[in-house]
Amino acid sequence: MDVDEFWTVVKSAGVGLDGRTGDDDEAVAAALVTRLAATSPERILEFQELFDQLHDALYRWDVWAAAYLIGGGCSDDSFIDFRAGVIALGREWYERVLASPDGLADHPVVLQAAAEEDDGGALFAESVNYVASEAYEQVTGGDDDAFYEAMKARQHAAVGIDEASEPDMGEDFDFDNDDEMRRRLPRLAELFLRPGED
């Protein structure tokens, strides 16, 4: 599976959902599991490898800051879910966020979350993180341990080590400093930071 095929699978899972995640992350995840379970264990593992690479590329302070604004805070675990949610939006939105997380200010789910002053889980798609393991279990009849062992073996064979190096997250900054957030993510800050808050 190459990256184009990966995005085709993601796009097919979102058909009929109008590019939404948030409350629909379970529907997107279920559709992804169904689509992947119709393939082979090898294809599922390839999907997960690409998912991990794309997920890791979003592991940056500026993306985390966007998640922090949209979610009214964002823990380590929530940031994992946010990055999965960005992937679930599809290639076009993923690439926009990679280029500039502030571009999320144009997404309908983000605009709705800002208008309601309640994130409602906007873009935080926890279940999307586990679609490959669920599909693998369905195809092989095994459990999630078998999936993680297969992934670990692939990663070890590919790089010759058990753990990848830490990604470059860019420049760290204070998410609780509203002036800094306004400077770095002006459009999202305008949506989520109320005047006079500091």
Short descriptors:
single chain; 198 residues; mainly alpha; 63% helix
Can you describe this structure in just a few lines?
The protein is an all-alpha fold and 198 residues long. The protein has helices at 3-14, 25-37, 41-57, 61-71, 76-88, 91-99, 108-116, 131-140, 144-159, 178-184, 186-192. The radius of gyration is 17 Å and the shape is elongated.
Please provide a written account of the structure.
The protein has 198 residues and is mainly α. It is built from eleven helices and no strands. The protein has helices spanning 3-14, 25-37, 41-57, 61-71, 76-88, 91-99, 108-116, 131-140, 144-159, 178-184, 186-192. α2 runs parallel beside α8 (131-140) and α10 (178-184) packs across α11 (186-192). The chain is elongated, with a radius of gyration of 17 Å. The termini are far apart. Mean pLDDT is 87; it is low at 19-23.
